[in-house]
Amino acid sequence: MATVLLVEDIPSNAEMYRVILERDGHAVRTVETMAAAERALDEGLPDAMLLDLQLPDGNGLDLLHTLRRAGTMVPTVVLTGNGSVQRAVDAMQAGATDFLMKPCSADKLSKAVGQAVARWTPSDARPAAGGTASEPARGPSGFVGESPAMRNVFALIDSAAASSAPVFITGDSGTGKELCARAIHEGGPRRNGPFVPLNCAAIPRELIESEIFGHRKGAFTGAVENREGAAALADHGTLFLDEICDMDLDLQAKLLRLVQQGTFKRVGDTYEREVDVRFVCATNRDPLAEVRAGRFREDLYYRLHVVPLALPPLRERASDIRVLAERFLADFATVERKGFRGFTDDAMRALEAYAWPGNVRELENVIRSVTVLNQGTVVTREMLPAHIRDAVAGRAPADAPTGADAKAGDGAAHGAANGTAAGPEGAPSLDDVLVQPLERLEILAIDRAIAHFDGNITRAAQALDISTSTIYRKKQSWRRRHGADPDA
User: Fold this and answer.
1) pLDDT digits (tens, 9 = 90+) for 318-329
2) Using CB atoms within 10 A of its CB, is residue 29 exposed (0-12), middle (13-18) or buried (19+)?
3) Overall pTM > 0.70
4) Helix/strand/coil for 278
5) CA 288 to chain centre
6) 339-367 residues labelled b (16+ CB within 10 A) or e (exposed)
7) What are the pLDDT digits (tens) for 245-265?
8) What CATH number does domain 145-310 carry, 3.40.50.300, 3.40.50.150, 3.10.180.10, 2.120.10.90?
9) What CATH architecture does domain 404-482 belong to?
């Protein structure tokens, strides 16, 4: 028997939810206000909480933020009205495990609360004695990284895995979007179900509908037998749609029905099938820009873009290059039966100086090539490909402080580069700084905040009152349009 705190101010709703939860074997305590919920939590943490966001004396989001700051987060399913999808997204980002739209069915309520209860352990809700322990370099599902950016990604994966809400992953090619999707699947309640990946950009347009929904024998030329599509194969599991922004608009309309209602038709069928699928999507584009350009349906975007997760490029987490390179070298040395044990300082400096436009995938391929083509116990600079070997030595790591704080010590060189004299007499005026395109000012403010907090993306986001995913998305969008950050 699990204990559930039900926070709902409408008596009829509260009674209905209580009956459903008690039927499932849970012990339910019902309160109607924020103040009463806070008192109940002070008396003892429940196994799960069902929380209405609109309460007479406050916003349920504030309660989630209070719990997170106190380190006493409780697995929480939030309830929201039909017009409050964005608030539900905010709640997920604040730490909620799932959300339900009112009115919701008894089955959906039971399932959501049951999954929240299943994830509860005492260590989830209480801070460890003596403070926060240091995190290991390896994150969920094989992810590797020690940078603040990747630690934030690991935390987001853990939060997203607990829910059944759709996840939308963005990031440059080679950043590990499929690995991220697998980590979300393997860390959640569907881990024992299938994980079905489908690359929407790699399948011809005339075949992708059949790949997703399946087809009936004789539905088209070449359909010589019945075939199940990815949607049916992913039943009770996760369907990962990679490069979803490459999907044809007509097919997006059919996908929307699957996302909304959990039903679809095979090509050539006259009847609908029902599946229980969790959606995780990914793209290397800016999905909102694709919506504005008319290449991606707005209604599908808002259905899928519930939990955004942005993967930083390797150039923004340069402190992870050494960790990743050493991991890849150890793996490939074992596979190829080579004696490599590490890198010379000169070789590592070259790896850290290179910009890695192909991200982690490019680094992995380079280390494998070096391992296959060379012999020895250490990798030297001469073993590296010429374009990496000749990278400019001494280039500042991409995840080092940037923006105005990082430029403050440049002196005359920085002033000359911007057409101003060094020192106070030649400093640009406040108008020169502020009267710029708003997009540029946003990026400058983000870079300054990151530098101020010594590269801690989470603290920078809190200071700017935005989410960490917004930081990654805005910087990624700027780079795509302009090729570099404004102060680079």
Assistant:
1) 889 999 999 899
2) middle
3) no
4) strand
5) 16
6) ebeebeeebbbbbbbbebebbbebbbebb
7) 999 999 999 999 999 999 999
8) 3.40.50.300
9) Orthogonal Bundle (1.10)
